[in-house]
Design a protein that fits this description.
Oligomer: single chain
Strand order of the largest sheet: 3-2-1-4
Structural class: mainly beta
Order of helices and strands: HEEEE
Shape: elongated
Strand content: 35-45%
Number of helices: 1
Number of strands: 4
Helix content: 10-25%
Distance between the termini: 16 Å
């Protein structure tokens, strides 16, 4: 799903994007990303949100 489709879905009231922040410890990495329908938007194909141990979600539950 593209960024444009995600934003259009939010405007139409179909799905709300979720902003997420995650952290891994070994090696330490911190990253923020946007998801729409549990799919990362604009991230590389090899991106795995499950690699991040601690995540904070903002906007979740508006679906």
């Amino acid at each position: 799903m593209t960024q444009r489709v995600c934003l259009l879905s939010a405007q139409a009231g179909l799905r709300w994007p979720t902003w997420k922040t995650g952290v891994t410890l070994e090696p330490f990495r911190a990253h923020a990303w946007v998801e729409c329908g549990d799919k990362p938007i604009g991230e590389p194909k090899d991106f795995r949100a499950g690699d991040y141990l601690v995540t904070i979600e903002i906007g979740a539950g508006r679906d």
